[in-house]
Amino acid sequence: MTVLDLLIEHAPALIVAIPLFGAFLMPLVSRVNEKLRNILALSIICLTGFFIWLLATDVLARGPRLYIFGAKNLASPMVRILFEVDSMSIFMITITVILAFIALVYSWSFMKEHDGLDKYYTLVLLLIASTLGMELTGDVFNFFVFLEISCIVSCALIAFFISEGEALEAAFKYIVVSSIGALFILFAIGLLYAQYDALNIATLAQVLKYTFLDKIVLVLLVVVLGMKAGLVPMHMWLPDSYGRAPPSVTLIIIGATLASFYGVLRVIFTLYGNVLSNAMRFALPVNVLVGWILIALAIISIIVGVIMALVQTDLMRLIAFAAVAEVGYMFLAIGTSIAALGSPYATTALQGGLLHLLNDALDIGLLFLVAGALYYATKKRLLDDISGLARNMKYTTVFFIIGLLAVAGMPPLNGFASKFLIYESVYQLNPILSIVAILCSILMLAIFVKVFYAAFLGPELPGFKDVKEAPRSMLLAMGLVAGLAIFIGLFPNIVIDTLVKPAADALVNHAQYISTVIGGI
Amino acid sequence: MFTLESGSGFWNPLLWILIVFIAFLLLYGIRGFGRNTYKKDTEQTKAFLSGNKEPSPDEMHVKASNLYWGFTTSLNNVYTALRKMHTGNTSDYVLWFVIILAVLFLVFGVM
After folding, report:
1. Total structural domains in chain B?
2. In this complex, which of A215, A234, A348 lies closest to B108 when CB atoms are compared?
3. How confident is the model over A102-131, as pLDDT tens digits?
């Protein structure tokens, strides 16, 4: 076995272990040198990214990879800590590490003037480790553990600007909602364990019978993870949290939120993949019922998201409501693919939904970074208080224009490519849904045109004559995201063929996921 | 490689850029037929407000909350309902979660 093989073999564990170990190094390194701490944090993410790349090349070429903690051969896979990495996990951890890298580059300047940065970097790396853990684990209980770590760490990070009362309030709301959700997940896991003596996703997927208790588990998991992903009407924690956390943190929390969305996909496609299309309810296969429920919640999310965004005066809250609408687009695509399982457009919908997951993270992330740059330069949050900033913040203005066009799904940016797939596939299920989605996208454009006018155009207010452009590290972070948005927009097939299609195939062909564990032990 | 197929349609961003580029070229050509009477830094470039003095930037600033007032006013009933829903009270956040949970329990035949 070569060194490279050895690295690939242990990559699933190292991808979580490196940021986890790095998190606890941060307070020590902070005492030595603050610049060294920042460099170390970035190096840790780069190293994690390197292992993700190694693992991705292997998994995309050879199929899912299993990593069992503490043993090589086991008689029973029922209860054991194990990671199972398929193309879907690779897709998710790639997004997480990209967001993490950009957030750390942005933090370099944005957080410079704040105290307690040793704690900040510790918490950020812990949040990244827990998000990666959620996306790599092949075990429902470990998923719960990583979810809990992510909730607690996110809460601390949302409250990072502790001098602002609203930040503390947002963190409190977040932890209450998250803890209640996590308790329901634990209850659901308990129900599964009580019935099947197993915690492993693949093992559970093979033996699941869709009993009365399994129905309860399905509802609990989908509703809680839907709430964590920001589905209306359980979305209210999201504008509070996104609106008050430091923008660099928001970027990583977006990654954690998407990990919950990934959880919904894992539950429906993998855990219940064998039983949903066979079980019936109201003379319909249950997969159709689940699909239409998700579509209904998605449409409500899109409409409520854009309508509420229109009247927001706080820029970050406005973007957060736009993020709710974007989550709606993802659920609309996923709901369509589940409701129409087996039809040709179901695959297109799934691919569109997954591509939109990446695009949402980048586009909404870019807008938050721009909002952070405006706050950094003006110390103002309210749109009514700012005007004419394009004169002094030219690069930030360009990045905002790219962000607004991308999030509104304007060609040729990345948002259009994914929305195009979503509109086309959803139209075949029901044209009205597609028309509503397109109209809301137009409204989204109108909302961000308003923001553009209010913040960047208009007269130069006396207080902003000396406003300076954002520092270089913040511009670099925004430039990276904008560059990715343009690249994916111009060459969507590269991303779709490399990451999205394998991820969609991995979700649909859940038998391979199950056989990797059952055959791997 | 550059064409994204959806099964029922296609999207080629490079083709789109080419078309937009040609459209801009045409517009630029049409613009060339116009009269060039613009003189920089003269009275011509100042705002004409019927002889009144130009207000200060503070007074001219149309605030973000004033934009789209027609739209928001016509949807007043919707906004009233949505504002009632977004109370900011954590108990209400949990209540919505419980409501959705209960509805789905009913739909799936648990209750």
Report:
1. 1
2. A215
3. 999 999 999 998 989 999 999 999 999 999
